[in-house]
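Example record for the data management plan.
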Amino acid sequence: MQRLNQKKLILIALGIFAPLTLPAPIVNASTFGAEIFCAMRDGGNDHESSWDAAYTYIKKQKGGLFKVSPKNAAAQITETVIREREKFNYCIEYLNNLHPDRKLIRDLEKEEKRKEKEAKDRENKRKQLEKELEEANEEFSEETLDRYSY
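Corresponding structural encoding:
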């Protein structure tokens, strides 16, 4: 009886974990993802909408516990377009948008952070000056000063 329970437990565990470990049909998902991206771009759609549609399809087709990252999906589309060059010869010109200049993006993010820091510093200085001005105003009495009264 105990042996039968162990076998059932093993089968249940295999039934649960096998789909998580088996590779998903990435080639088919990336091929159709590339078709979606290239067809939309060739149809006149902008990069963002084409990319969103292809990436959403690739994410949904990949089963398992972990989803495909945007970088990995872009690599899959690029690989498919290059591998099947005859089929996607019109799409090669759009591949550069899938892999933006990472250094430029980092530089822009650094510049944005620097500007935010400068804005915070200016705000802090303004608040400090207002506080000092209020303290200086408190030192003067409420009486009107007559400049001719000595």
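Summary line stored alongside the record: Residues 2-100 form one domain.
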